From TrEMBL:
It comes from the Eukaryota. GO terms for molecular function: oxidoreductase activity. This is NAD(P)-binding protein. Keywords: NADP, Oxidoreductase. The lineage of its organism: Eukaryota, Fungi, Dikarya, Ascomycota, Pezizomycotina. It holds the Pfam family adh_short. The keyword Oxidoreductase applies. Belongs to the short-chain dehydrogenases/reductases (SDR) family.
Length: 364
């Protein structure tokens, strides 16, 4: 075995610097983008649809709830005057249903491509892992793993299809932290929706916790290997936020504590969608807190109005995990970069052959 040689891969995976949420961005930068949102009929998704449609994006919602999705699309079209807001029935656990959603989104897109995919659909609730049924039977019955199906397999299908469609967004360039947001709407962006349950244990919801940890793992892996396709991958990690997914039981347990706000989730997601310079980053969204930076660089919770403090609901976790990697990750990333560079030379050689052929009268 070669000795362990930690090495920073931040530049090699084209990861942008940590997100500074005090730096402003323009929501208007989403104008003209075609955005596909799974589970967009309710909660965060509905918040994204309204805000991005107001800014002039084309929004295609795929949701299992036909009634809510249809009403939302009709309402938002009427309220915003933006005709490019569409609902398509989709069950994210059904591969063919997601294939149809992506195909339909490209067909409805005014420019024929998809710029951003938001893997948002999710469920919570009674967990078969927590309360196994029928364990006294001679043979245990097959458990209901619907939460894993929607929150993990459904997200994997969405990510897989995003990796098919985003590089086919003709007119888009490979994502880059040197891009100039607002100058072109074209993008190749996958925004994953995790949870605080991606980072911390969640009692009584083992499937939900496992699925959301899987989303975090997907993000941390994909962000290292997405640059050959020119795709940027980001992640939002909301704390408990007041939407229909928060069960009555959870509301009772949370009584007296703070919940986050949908508007802050919309803010975090809009920053990622709008600012094409952000590559491979994540933001936690919690209740608003007042923070002050100490002399040692650490942040401390302080009373509202404390001089030098600022109020925020957002902060970035896992900012450093590609700064020191092991030999396996280092070698994989180097191979990917070498393949990409080689493709570049092949592309150049192909163009030269074409140019010579053209000069000789072929293909005119
Ligand atoms: N609200 C919170 O406290 C919170 C916190 C962290 C993460 N999240 C995550 O945010 C995402 C959105 O949740 P929300 O809070 O807006 O909840 P929500 O219940 O309001 O919205 C979820 C949407 O997903 C749709 N959906 C469910 N199953 C589906 C399926 N099989 N196919 C297609 N669509 C399906 C629902 O119809 C609904 O419109 C979820 O992934 C959730 O896990 C929510």
């Amino acid at each position: 075995m070669p000795p362990h040689q930690p090495e920073s891969m931040v530049a090699a995976i084209r990861q942008s610097p940590p997100v500074d949420v005090s730096v402003p961005y323009e929501s208007a930068w989403v104008k003209g983008k075609t955005i596909l949102i799974t589970g967009g009929a309710s909660g965060f998704g509905a918040g994204f649809v309204r805000h991005w449609a107001e800014q002039g994006a084309t929004v295609v919602v795929g949701d299992i709830n036909v009634e809510k999705g249809d009403v939302l699309a009709r309402e938002v079209r009427k309220e915003t005057g933006n005709a490019n807001v569409h609902f398509v029935h989709c069950d994210v656990t059904d591969w063919q249903s997601q294939v149809n959603l992506f195909r339909e989104a490209a067909r409805l897109s005014p420019h024929g491509g998809i710029d951003t995919v938001v893997a948002n659909a999710g469920i919570a609730g009674a967990d078969a892992m927590q309360r196994p049924q029928g364990m006294t039977d001679a043979e245990p019955p097959k458990p209901n793993f619907k939460i894993m199906d929607v929150n993990c397999t459904g997200v994997m299908y969405t990510a897989h299809l995003a990796y098919y469609w985003l590089p086919r967004n003709s007119g888009s360039d490979a994502c880059s932290m040197d891009s100039q947001p607002g100058t072109t709407c074209r993008d190749r962006h996958l925004l994953l929706v995790g949870s605080i349950a991606s980072l911390a244990p969640i009692a009584a919801q083992p499937q939900y916790g496992a699925a959301k940890h899987a989303v975090l793992g997907l993000f941390r892996s994909l962000r290292a290997t997405s640059h050959p396709q020119g795709i940027r991958v980001n992640l939002i990690l909301p704390y408990f936020i007041d939407t229909p997914i928060v069960t009555l039981g959870a509301r009772v347990v949370l009584a007296g504590g703070a919940m986050g706000k949908v508007e802050d989730v919309v803010d975090a997601a809009t920053r990622f969608v709008a600012d094409s310079r952000i590559l491979g980053r994540s933001l936690v969204i919690g209740p608003k807190v007042t923070l002050k930076q100490l002399d040692n660089g650490e942040w401390d919770l302080v009373a509202k109005g404390t001089p030098g403090s600022r109020e925020t609901a957002l902060w970035e976790p896992y900012a450093e995990d590609w700064e020191d990697v092991d030999a396996f990750d280092r070698n994989i990333v180097k191979v990917l970069n070498a393949v990409q560079a080689a493709r570049g030379w092949i592309g150049w050689a192909t163009d030269i052959v074409k140019a010579v052929g053209y000069g000789l009268g072929f293909g005119r």
